[in-house]
Amino acid sequence: MEPVISPLATPYEFESFANPGDERWSSRDGKEITTVVIHHMAMTNYDGVPEVWREREASAHYGIGPKGEIRAYVGEEKKAWHARAANGYSIGIENCDITKEPDWEVSDETVDSLVKLIKDINQRYGRKMEIVGHQCAEGNSSATTQCPGPSLIPRLPEIIKRVNEE
User: Fold this and answer.
1) Are 99 and 42 in contact (CB under 8 A)?
2) Domain 10-164 -> CATH class
3) In 10 A of CB 113, how many CB atoms?
4) Is the pLDDT of residue 10 over 80?
5) What CA–CA distance (Å, rounded) separates 30 from 13?
6) Which end of the chain has the smaller Cβ count within 10 Å, N or C?
7) How many CA atoms lie within 13 A of 110 on its CB side?
8) What single DSSP character describes residue 67?
9) Tens digit of pLDDT for each residue in 43-96?
10) Per-domain residue ranges for the chain?
11) In a 3-state reduction of DSSP, which class is residue 93?
């Protein structure tokens, strides 16, 4: 089976960052994709994301860089490890920060590409996905994570509105 990725994305270390014998992605076990979970990378080094995942049991389907470039890390047909209980039915999108803590700002170019990517996902699946920040995904809360960070959290209504515009 061919991997399912957006035509807007370029594969980058695609499904190659796990250590032999561990799984940073796995089968969805027939679960339907209904949700997009938005994350921030908590780092400004866009190229360093897969390296971080070599050390942590985590992954995501996509990453968006500070200039709006989109990378595919895990095929959509697979469950990535990004949002606890929501992993089985969601697509995870990491967004690179342009500043460090405490603000963790994300560029407008990144947000523009995020909107385009979610629109593409909706079009390819023929429905509007639910869009949530990581802390609002099933099994998460603001007590367990501050992701998608102080820059993206207040922009979620704007992102959802832009995605749903025709």
Assistant:
1) no
2) alpha beta
3) 22
4) yes
5) 26
6) C
7) 25
8) T
9) 999 999 998 988 888 999 999 999 999 999 999 999 999 999 999 999 999 999
10) 10-164
11) strand
